[in-house]
């Protein structure tokens, strides 16, 4: 059996002709002696079971008259028998019927025959109607069945489609997940590679820093020492030139390393309490001699509303100001240089302050103002020849100021001078925070001992240089070549301070410091160490390293060191730290250097 389709529902609809035929068949059954025919509204002629021959003109005439009349109209069949037509509005059609046996008068309107015939026709009409209803009903049931089947099929199809879509979606999700997992793995790998590259770069920087600073240590230190020996004027001039060139080279190395660190995002600012006035005094002191030589006045002013002690990175702030003041000094031949820190406003508990370095120097052409903040760029081509410099200073200052939350800018007029300035928030140092420096100072006052220093350093040139510098500062010095040797010295002798190189073969400075702290903490073990058993305070250990990174300094303190000194060791820096760490010693035991 072919499956029913939606369109086939209407195949079974009963047409008008069929309705008329049914009626005729019923009437034939009810009137077995009569012969009849029906003429539809469209003049289609349907014959009953017993034929009734009628010439078309007669039939047409009868039909016309019946349609116009409410009752029966009479006519004559071909065989001469009487026939009558009546219009049945219900069908609608004209029924022509012949009953040979009925006499003429019986056809009168309202006669028994016409009433009987009317009733019979009505009965036939009812039956036909009922049959049609039954047929309609059956057809509806059939249609409902078909619709149900269609519906079921539709649901089935939809469900199948839904499952198919679901499967497709699952497959798609699976593919997507695996793609994401693959890409995540690739990203992780790339990230790991980048981190590794960044680590290698950072290590490379640290090593470069070490490799470059170590010989600089020797060049600067020994030329400094050489210049203090009896020399002819020409020799002294050469020696000073070597020292100056080496210092410039070191500045350049530091600048390049700084810039590399900033660009690698490795430069972190410190947050330590410091005295702002001290930083400004330091900066001004550095330019005292050149200012006197040039006849240029240097003035400084700090607004009284700015807190004295603030939190931040004093070294980096000093570096910025030295750079700006250095430039001001370089490009000013007469007049003055003015360093000012002005109060601007208070915001979120911080004092927003304006740092400015003003000079009455050569000024900067307006069209070069932006360029000078770029790396390796100077205001004009003749600057290097005339004034020297590399064009790195301002680029570094710009970045450092940004790290401090400000923006470095300049106002300048050629021939009149320039003002470099930046506005940064300053945070007052809380009273309870005591700087590392003060810790050291507090500790140091309790130290009562001789002025003996243990220098732990593997490099022979550095050993010699540092020993001479220490001795010249008036202290006694013993040298150990690595960490293990330093422990041996402490076993048999007492020292007031250890200068401990960080990078050494055999046992490095970190390891040696950790060992010393362990021994100090062990009451039994420390008895075997003459240099440690009687100490009331932990032994002062200053880390010496060419690595000037913040993390190196932190690592030194974490290992147990009490101070940190970057190489190259120059006289001024060494003297400063020794004075800080050993003030009592310097009074008690410092020898007369002369
Ligand atoms: P450097 O001074 O080593 O060349 P900087 O980055 O510090 O590098 O300065 C870049 C340039 O900006 C200088 O070469 C100079 O042309 C100009 N400049 C900086 N400060 C001043 C100043 N105070 N007066 C005039 N020109 C200046």
What does this molecule look like?
This protein is α/β, with parallel strands linked by helices. It is 51% helix and 18% strand. The protein has 17 helices and 17 strands. It has helices at residues 16-30, 56-68, 112-227, 233-263, 276-286, 288-294, 314-330, 382-387, 393-403, 436-444, 460-472, 483-492, 509-521, 530-533, 550-559, 571-581, 583-588; strands spanning 35-40, 45-47, 73-76, 82-88, 93-98, 272-275, 297-302, 309-312, 336-347, 350-359, 409-413, 417-428, 452-456, 476-480, 497-501, 540-545, 563-566. The strands form 3 sheets. Strands 6, 7, 8, 9, 10, 11 and 12 form a 7-stranded mixed β-sheet that branches. Helix 11 links the parallel strand 13 (452-456) and strand 14 (476-480). Helix 3 runs antiparallel to helix 4. The longest helix is centred in the N-terminal third of the chain and has 116 residues, at 112-227. It is rod-shaped, with a radius of gyration of 58 Å. It starts with 15 loop residues before the first helix and ends in a 6-residue tail after the last helix. Mean pLDDT is 85; it is low at 433-450 and 583-594. It binds adenosine-5'-diphosphate.
């Amino acid at each position: 059996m072919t499956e029913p389709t939606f369109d086939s529902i209407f195949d079974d609809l009963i047409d008008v002709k069929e309705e008329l035929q049914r009626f005729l068949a019923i009437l034939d059954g009810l009137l077995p002696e009569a012969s009849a025919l029906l003429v539809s509204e469209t003049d289609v002629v349907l014959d009953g079971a017993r034929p009734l021959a009628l010439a078309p003109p007669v039939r047409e005439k009868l039909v016309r008259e019946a349609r116009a009349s409410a009752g029966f109209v009479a006519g004559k069949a071909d065989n001469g028998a009487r026939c009558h037509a009546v219009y049945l509005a219900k069908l609608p059609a004209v029924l022509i019927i012949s009953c040979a046996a009925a006499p003429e008068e019986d056809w009168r309107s309202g006669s028994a025959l016409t009433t009987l015939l009317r009733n019979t026709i009505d009965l036939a009409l009812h039956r036909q109607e009922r049959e049609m209803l039954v047929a309609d009903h059956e057809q509806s049931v059939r249609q409902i069945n078909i619709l149900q089947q269609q519906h079921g099929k539709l649901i089935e199809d939809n469900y199948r489609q839904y499952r198919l879509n679901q499967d497709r979606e699952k497959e798609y999700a699976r593919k997507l997940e695996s793609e994401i997992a693959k890409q995540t793995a690739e990203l992780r790998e790339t990230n790991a590679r980048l981190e590794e590259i960044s680590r290698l770069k950072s290590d490379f920087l640290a090593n470069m820093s070490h490799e470059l600073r170590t010989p600089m240590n020797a060049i600067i230190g020994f030329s400094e020492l050489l210049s203090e020996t009896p020399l002819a004027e020409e020799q002294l001039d050469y020696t000073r030139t070597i020292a100056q060139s080496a210092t410039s080279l070191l500045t350049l190395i530091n600048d390049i390393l700084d810039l590399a660190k900033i660009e690698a995002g490795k430069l972190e600012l410190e947050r330590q309490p410091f005295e702002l006035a001290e930083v400004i005094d330091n900066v001004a002191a550095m330019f005292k001699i050149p200012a006197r030589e040039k006849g240029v006045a240097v003035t400084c002013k700090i607004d009284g509303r700015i807190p004295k002690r603030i939190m931040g990175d004093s070294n980096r702030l000093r570096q910025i100001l030295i750079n700006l003041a250095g430039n001001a000094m370089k490009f000013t031949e007469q007049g003055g240089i003015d360093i000012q820190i002005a109060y601007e406003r208070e915001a979120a508990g911080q004092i927003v302050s304006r740092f400015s370095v003003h000079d009455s120097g050569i000024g900067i052409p307006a069209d070069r103002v932006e360029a000078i903040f770029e790396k390796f760029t100077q205001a004009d081509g003749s600057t290097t020849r005339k004034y020297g410099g590399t064009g790195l200073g301002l680029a570094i200052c710009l970045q450092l100021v940004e790290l401090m939350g400000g923006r470095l800018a300049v106002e300048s007029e050629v021939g009149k001078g320039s003002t470099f300035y930046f506005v940064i928030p300053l945070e007052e140092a809380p009273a309870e925070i005591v700087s590392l420096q003060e810790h050291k100072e507090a500790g140091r006052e309790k130290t009562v001992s001789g002025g003996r220093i243990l220098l732990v350093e593997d490099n022979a040139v550095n050993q010699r240089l540092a020993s001479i510098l220490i001795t010249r500062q008036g202290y006694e010095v013993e040298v150990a070549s690595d960490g293990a040797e330093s422990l041996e010295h402490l076993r048999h002798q007492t020292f007031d301070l250890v200068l401990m190189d960080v990078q050494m073969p055999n046992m490095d400075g970190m390891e040696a410091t950790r060992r010393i702290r362990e021994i100090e903490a062990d009451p039994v073990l420390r008895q075997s160490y003459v240099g440690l058993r009687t100490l009331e305070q932990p032994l002062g250990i200053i880390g010496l390293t060419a690595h000037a990174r913040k993390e190196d300094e932190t690592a030194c303190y974490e290992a147990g060191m009490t101070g940190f000194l970057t190489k190259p060791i120059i006289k001024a820096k060494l003297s400063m730290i020794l004075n800080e760490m050993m003030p009592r010693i310097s009074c008690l035991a410092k020898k007369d250097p002369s």
